[in-house]
Structures are given as C-alpha cells and as structure tokens.
Design a protein that fits this description.
6-stranded mixed sheet, 259 residues, globular, alpha/beta, 49% helix, Lyase 2-enoyl-coa Hydratase, Chain  A, domain 2
C-alpha cells in the first residue's frame, strides 16, 4: 500500500482521510502537499462549509515514518529541512483555512500527527484515543508546531512535561485540559464530527469564518488590536447578506437559510 490523502464529501463537509494503514497513516510529503492543495480548492468552494481531518482504519496518524527518517540520515540535511517545511506549510494551511476544521481522532495521534490535530479548530476523539508527542523518546525534537500549540494551550510546566516525557495522554485527560472538545465511543469519532459539521454548516458561513479568524489572531493580538479587529468584523458582518437573513429569520421565528 502507499500513502495518500483521500477526499470525499458529506453534505457541505469535505472529509480528508490520511491513508497509509501499513504505517499507521504516518505522514508523507505527498500527503502534506495534497492537503495544502485540497484545502486551497475548498477555500474557493462556497458549497463547502466545514472540513474534517481523519485517519484510515481507526488510527489518526503516527507522525513521521521512522524508516524514512532513518534513511534521511544518509542524505544532506537540507533535504530533511525541505520536508519539514512542507509539513509546516500543511499545518499553516489547516490553521489558516477559513472553513472550520474538525479532527476526528481514533487510535493514536503521535508526533506530527498530534500537531495536525492541534492545528484543527475542534477535536473529536474516540474513548481510547491516545495523544503523544513521542519525539524525545527517539532522540528527536518537536516539529509541526507542537511546542507552539501546547505552550499556548497549557501551563509551561505541563507543556514541557508532555513534550519531554513523550508519554501517551488519554482523550479523557486532554478533554479535562481543554484540548479535546468531545469524546465518543470508539469508532464513532467520524460520525460525531459529521453531525457537528452539519450543525456548523447551518450557521452563517460569513460569521463562522470571521469568528475563526478572530480566535486565531487573538493568540498574538493585544486587547486594543482585538477591539479593532472585532469592530471591523462586526460592522462588515452587519452589512453582509447573512445578517439580513439571520435577523429576518429571528423575527419570523424560522430557521435561517444561508446561501
């Protein structure tokens, strides 16, 4: 079998499936390139209102393929630097995608696979899903933005523990820490993500995309900068057709019908 990214549709949701079961869906540069290209296409498609990222055969993603990484040690370091840059471009594409991205995690999300999940806006996990950074255990250091995401989401001491000890964390533990949104029975993460994406698709696409941008940019903005961003988005949203439909629907006591 070979590594690929499979794309399918569920109503207004684009489902992206990392597929290389023989390697537990370990990341391949081709997967990263396909993710970037597919998300770029989805951004321009108004019929797509949400994206789900998942893994094949009840495993999310094992991160980097250690066989490939060992082979890279016999090549120039610049080649691995290019591969890492492709991963980082993939993470940025997920984070910057204007459509909400839901990670549906079954089994393991390890190393860069954990980073992929952290880059998503929401995480739905099977009850026995496991999340781990894994790097230090094999003499490596984080990539994919793992250190950035965890250092902003957790106290410094806990982020350091998670990154250095490389122990697996359960879905329940990460839910308690606020990193996982929802936990479902094993095998139902994708189903739950589909239902959630249907709920999101019923909301104003304009408002959803602007809120995602506000939440993303708030991580580095001052309060005054965030005030300005909120003012801009609120005024522009008020004069957008979605606000007219949403307010009319409220007064008419009916569900809104966003186009």
């Amino acid at each position: 079998m070979f590594a690929e990214l499979r794309a399918s549709r569920h109503n207004a949701t684009l489902i992206l499936t990392l597929s290389d079961p023989s390697a537990k869906n370990a990341l391949h540069p081709d997967m990263c390139a396909a993710t970037i290209e597919t998300l770029s296409t989805a951004e321009r498609n108004d019929e797509i209102r949400a994206v789900i990222l998942t893994g094949d055969e009840n495993v999310f993603c094992a991160g980097g393929n250690l066989h490939r990484l060992m082979a890279m040690r016999n090549r120039d370091p610049s080649e691995q630097a290019e591969v890492t840059e492709k991963l980082h471009a993939c993470i940025e594409a997920i984070r910057d995608c204007p459509k909400p991205v839901i990670a549906a995690v079954e089994g393991a999300a390890a190393g860069a696979g954990f980073a992929l999940a952290l880059a998503c806006d929401f995480i739905v996990a099977g009850a026995n899903a496991q999340f781990l950074t894994a790097y230090a255990k094999v003499g490596l250091t984080p990539d994919g933005g793992s250190s950035w995401f965890l250092s902003r989401a957790l106290p410094r001491q806990l982020a350091a523990e998670m990154l250095i000890e490389s122990k697996p964390y359960s879905a329940q533990r990460l839910h308690a820490l606020g990193l996982v949104n929802r936990i479902v029975a094993d095998g139902y993460a994708l189903n739950e993500a589909r239902e959630w994406s249907d709920d999101i698709a019923a909301m104003s696409p304009n408002a959803v995309q602007r809120i995602k941008a506000l939440v993303r940019d708030a991580q580095t903005a001052s309060l005054q900068e965030q005030f300005e961003a909120e003012k801009k988005h609120f005024v522009e949203s008020l004069y957008h057709r979605d606000a007219q439909e949403g307010i009319n629907a409220f007064f008419e006591k009916r569900p809104p019908r966003y186009r």
